[in-house]
Amino acid sequence: MRARRVRDGLKGWGGVGAMAVLCALALACVLLLPLTTGSRGDGSTGLGGPRIAEGTAAADASCTDPEKQTLSPSGADGTTIAKIKARQGEKRKLIVGVDQNSYRWGYRDPNNSGAQLEGFDIDLVHRIAQDILGDPDAVQFKAIPTNQRIPALQKGWVDMVVRTMTINCDRIKQVAFSAPYFKTGQQVLAPASSTIKGYDDTLADKKVCTAASSTANEQLNDDRDSGRIPASVNLDTVVPNQLDCLVRLQLGEVDAVVTDGALAASQAAQDPTVRLKGEPFTTEYYGVAMNKDADDLVRRVNQILVEYRANGWQDSYDRWLSATLGRDAGPSKPPAPVYLRKS
Description:
Layout: H1 2-10, H2 16-25, H3 79-85, E1 94-98, E2 101-102, E3 106-108, E4 117-118, H4 120-133, E5 139-143, H5 149-154, E6 160-161, E7 176-177, E8 182-184, E9 186-191, E10 207-211, H6 215-226, E11 234-239, H7 242-250, E12 256-260, H8 261-270, E13 274-277, E14 284-286, E15 289-290, H9 295-310, H10 313-320, H11 322-325
Parallel strand pairs: 1-5, 1-6, 10-11, 10-12
Antiparallel strand pairs: 2-3, 3-4, 6-15, 7-15, 8-14, 9-12, 9-13
């Protein structure tokens, strides 16, 4: 019975969907940061790397609108950019942490020659590399799981992370963000036949999967404690990489996944047996994450985003996301930036 459920669940995955599962299983073999490998012991299909997680700062009641806590744009070079440009030969590249498993955001399509990384986030990386180094392909991609995005920046393993990363109050204490380049919200993903209707009482007694250090994981725990969702919601399934949740859902090990609606829509496009349930229940913004001390790089990326919003963002959206999110939907326009006036 279980084997049949797995087979039926995977039946709609062809092509890119199957690729996503294979990429998750093979994640430890390709494009990885130089991390020490170790067993997590949780059965995850994600990276079994060191036991480093994003730090979670205490909630700051004074923090509002974290997406507006970024520096004003500037095209000037500074110390951080100078170091990037000083890299010699083949090493003269922008080092960027990305996802290689998120369909239409950052992924490898096995049907394309060479299976290069592509997607909405990848387009933005190429645009940044073009501006800083004069070559859109002057990029060294590093595939990193959800729960190692902040450590990768703090340890200097990457120059930036462009990986559907939500700007929030906890994270802006640990890393710096650009102005937002995409607006989304948390949403429930579940089998089409499920009785789950959304982020409500229909989650009672259900097993819900989230990624470690994700905004979804924090939100669900807070909402269960406060009574916004039933106390019986089982949140024990926490995995290092968001795609792992989709695999768990396909295997029937959980009843639902909670993640960004933009990601969930792409996952639903991979698999016709799952659906978005209900409306988004938060408002969140993706930003390019950088080291806390890289002010010049933050300003430069914000300058690039000014130009990208006017010329490039819409083309990338139409190519990668309009099929799943809609041509005229709310997310189909880049968020308007607001900057700190910090000298």
